[in-house]
Amino acid sequence: MSITVVNHPLIQHKLSLLRDHNTGTKDFRELAAEIAMLMAFEATRDLETEMVALDTPVSPTQSPMLSGKKLALVAILRAGLVMADSILRLIPAAKVGHIGLYRDPESLSPVSYYAKLPPDIGERRVFLLDPMLATGGSAVRALDLLKAQGAQNIKLMVILAAPEGIAVVQKAHPDVEIVTAAVDSHLNSHGYIVPGLGDAGDRIYGTK
Description:
alpha/beta
């Protein structure tokens, strides 16, 4: 299983601002979107291209353009939405899917309540989006749903990951690459990433 930590200085700076408990809802939401967009450059580095003929204002030339499988962005509701919206600015032709999950506060197990995916998901390269990979339960459940619908080429993009969550995903889906901005220390007794940044969904939308 491949794990890519995108440690670009701009991303790490914005991540530090994201962690700060003094960062308000508006700034937090904008920072999360900016980090996702910057991470997308690394996550899409291996997209296929082909040379095409075109005319510049000066002369004809051969120039690379995207080819290969079409793309799909799948957001885990609700916090993954801000990542999907920002990445769509880079890849406006991508289809968008949504998977609704919440974590039971007692068992910490994921509960599925909604799934709407592009009908041709099996023919697309899929980027599964969620700001946090904590226990790994939600990610594994979402990956199970994607594969049940035929998805085969999947990357999991998260802003923060815990070692425990990485291990859970690795065990259940060793073929899925994880792209993250940081791997933090551990999970606390409530299943939160330490040092983390709190509840991403609550901080994005101003809820508790």
